[in-house]
Specification:
211 residues; alpha+beta; Pnp Oxidase, Chain A; 5 helices; 9 strands; 26% helix
């Protein structure tokens, strides 16, 4: 089959102004819970887009680990490519794509590190092998082979046993949203798109965008 001929008619739901929350965080919480309840694969997976010093964008998939009025939180290696790019340009975009529900959420804003206390609390809640893995992987660096990771994991496992501390190069980021967009697939490609933009008074404006 020609890939250009692949098509799908989106007909599962609609997104209207009258049925959506005026606060985008509440709308996001509703959709995320519906994704979880619907048992879509990895409903907590999101794409993070950053821009490097060369002004070229890059994306990767991470897992959301928290959200509230302060922003969206995820954790990673600060020395990774995304960490280095955020250090030089603290703006990012996030995207959730719940294929089975025919929904997309896009979020744009500024990014900062979470507190050490928050990073410590989450790190110590992780499974032991994940905590060792944070030490074992020099994320985004070139390595000679998988043996490097296995050897590092064995070495740090022997060193820390059951109590590995949080590595100084590992922790959380929080994106403070300045703009949200909610996309609901509709028939005939006449999709619903609602954009929320932060206002100076702390509120949100809401607009419908053409698909």
């Amino acid at each position: 089959m020609n890939i250009a001929d692949l098509r799908k008619s989106y007909e599962k739901a609609e997104l209207s102004e009258s049925a959506s929350h005026t606060n985008p965080l509440q709308q996001f919480a509703k959709w995320l819970q519906e994704a979880i309840s619907s048992e879509v694969p990895e409903p907590n997976a999101m794409t993070v887009a950053t821009v490097g010093f060369n002004l070229r964008p890059s994306t990767r998939v991470v897992l959301i680990k928290g959200y509230d009025e302060r922003g969206i939180v995820w954790y990673t290696n600060y020395g990774s490519r995304k960490g280095q790019e955020l250090a030089g340009n603290p703006y990012a975009a996030l995207q959730f794509h719940w294929v089975e529900l025919e929904r997309v959420v896009r979020i744009e804003g500024t990014v900062e590190k979470v507190s050490d206390a928050e990073s410590d609390e989450y790190f110590h809640s992780r499974p032991l092998d994940s905590r060792i893995g944070a030490w074992a992987s020099p994320q985004s660096q070139v390595i000679s082979g998988r043996t490097v990771l296995v050897t590092n994991a064995a070495r740090y496992g022997a060193q820390f046993m059951l109590q590995p501390p949080r590595p100084p190069h590992w922790g959380g980021y929080r994106l403070k949203a300045e703009q949200w967009e909610f996309w609901q697939g509709r028939k005939s490609r006449l999709h619903d798109r609602l954009r929320y933009t932060a206002q100076a008074d702390g509120g949100w404006s809401r607009e419908r965008l053409a698909p």
